[in-house]
Structures are given as C-alpha cells and as structure tokens.
Amino acid sequence: MAAGLHWEHPLLNNTRRDLLRNAPMLGAAMALGACGGSGAAKAKGGTLGPVRTVTWAVGTTGSDFVTDISVGAADAADMLGWRFDRILNALATPDAHINAIRTAVTSRADVVLTVDWYQAVIDEIAAGQKGGTHFAVVNSANNPAELEKLNVPFVGLTPKITGKLMGRHIADELAARGISQGSVLVGNPFPGSLNVEERIAGVREGLAEVTGGLRMVTFPDNAATDSALAVGLYKAKITETADVVAHAAAGGEMSTIPLTKALAELGKRASGTVVGGWVSSLKSLTLLKNGELTFALDENLYYQGFLAVLASWSMLERGMPAGDISPGFQWVTPKSVDAVIDSYQRRKAAAEAYGLS
Length: 357
Hints:
alpha/beta, 6-stranded parallel sheet, disordered N terminus
C-alpha cells in the first residue's frame, strides 16, 4: 500500500449501510483481473455475464476531475468486457446535468454513473430506473436517504467528511509550528452550492475539535466567474482579517489558483502560511510541488469510477445489495508529490489511449 494512502478513518464510517466494504470490492477487482485475456471475450455468454454499456453522465465539460473518474470506469468496464461512454455538457448548470442523465437513459445505457449534486438528480434516477436503467453515484451524495430508498450505490467521500479532515490537518500543521490562535480563511466560489457549503462546514467542525483559538473566516471569492477578480478579493480579505494563519481552498483548483496568486503578490507562500487544498488536477499538484500549497487531500477519483462500475456489476450479475463504498484518500505533501504526479501522468496516458483526454 502506498505511503499516505488511507482505506479506513474514524470519519469514514458508513452512515447508510454497512453492506459493501472496500476489501470485498478490491478482492472482486483482483479476481476479475486474474481472469486474463480479453474481458469482452469472457463477458459474452461467459461467467461475467452479458456485455453492457456504462455511461458516465455529468453536467460539466472535460476536466481532470472528469477524466480521472472516466479512466477508472473505463478500466473496470474493459476488464468486464463492457462498453464505456461519456455524456458531458459544456455548461456547468443543474439543467445541463439533468440533460446529460436523460441523454444517457435515452441512449439505452445499461448503467449510468452520475453525481448527486442536485435534488433533481434523484427524480431522474427514479424515472430512469422505471425503464430498467441501473444507476451508481460517485463523488458526492447530497441526498443519501433518497439514494438508499432507490437502492443506488455510492462511491466517494462526502464533502463534509473531507472538510473535517482538512480542518483537523490544518490544525495539526499549525500546532507543529507552535500556532494555536488565528484565522483560517476559506473562500467560497459557489455560495449556496451544497457541495461547497458542506465542505466548508466540515472545515469549521474539524477546527472546532482542536483546543485553541483557531476560527474560520469564509467569504465569497468569486473564483467561479472571474479568477482575476478573485485574486483581488483574496488580497483584500487577507489584509482585512489581519490574523490569517492558514487557508483551505474549498473550491479545489478553482479557488486554489487565485488564492496562491494573491499570496504570492502579498509575499506569503506556503512556507509562511499553511495552505491546504483539494487535488483535482495536475495544476494543483504543480502548485504544491512549487511550494505554493502546504499539502492537499486527494480523494482518489480514479477509484471512484473503478469501484462504481464493479459495484454495478456485482449488483446486476451477483445480486449484491447497494452500499456506500469509501475509495480512501491520501494526503499529498512535498515529499510525496512527485509520485502522485507520476500516477496522474500514467492515468492521463491511459485516458489518451481510450480517447478520453
């Protein structure tokens, strides 16, 4: 197991069902891989069942986030002899996301992977199931009770869990530097977005668990609409707050880029101010390698796509129940960043081979 890779954590308890666990799913993956040869040849009327089509439907354009999940799903589909497809949309809006799901269902995909970013997703899943489409949710499950009723598996870490992990880690890093008081600044690129709001709420909870005088300060950073303007907003907020000792880039790369530019212009790099981020791209990793991030949380997006396809196969072919599956996570630091970048580059090459880049 790679250094820094976590499969279990006190925060990662299944709150929905304790039916599917990482070890059995990974065991299934190894068993399928051991079959050898072409998955497609064995799937047609063989022990792995019929060839099916799995479609990753998401209302956003191609990105490292989309690609990483895509490669994981494509690898699992290839092992099973399934066909893999994607339906993306150029507009990151609720309507675009719903339209992507509807298009996948209309195309008669056997399995649809999607993200539970909006309440309307639940309605689309329920409608699609009536027509015989199987669904699996990755990355974010904002309506867990509804997904449970619909018997839909979820692979990922909830935003609040990753936020809480980040809050604790920031507090630990500050403690190692002898700092127990001050403000932790968190910009929000999507005020009102449940994903980001929950992540920020988690940071607050993580900081609150640590004895001392750390407090969280959050503000709209405008990074989703105007990165250049966001730089100025970060500089103004840092100056106004005065006692900022750390930052959490809750918007992922979207917030990380303007935040690190603002810190550079103010002469405050990660060596002097703790900066924690979420890995969603090679750009984020490069910023960490260059010393502009202190550390980053990697949610193992590849595993999310990979395990979601295997969970779907297990349900369809072996009658297994749906469950919540943790893909694990890892902290990326200056010492481990080169290995993580190499891993990303390998997946990027695989994406190009699949025609997914």
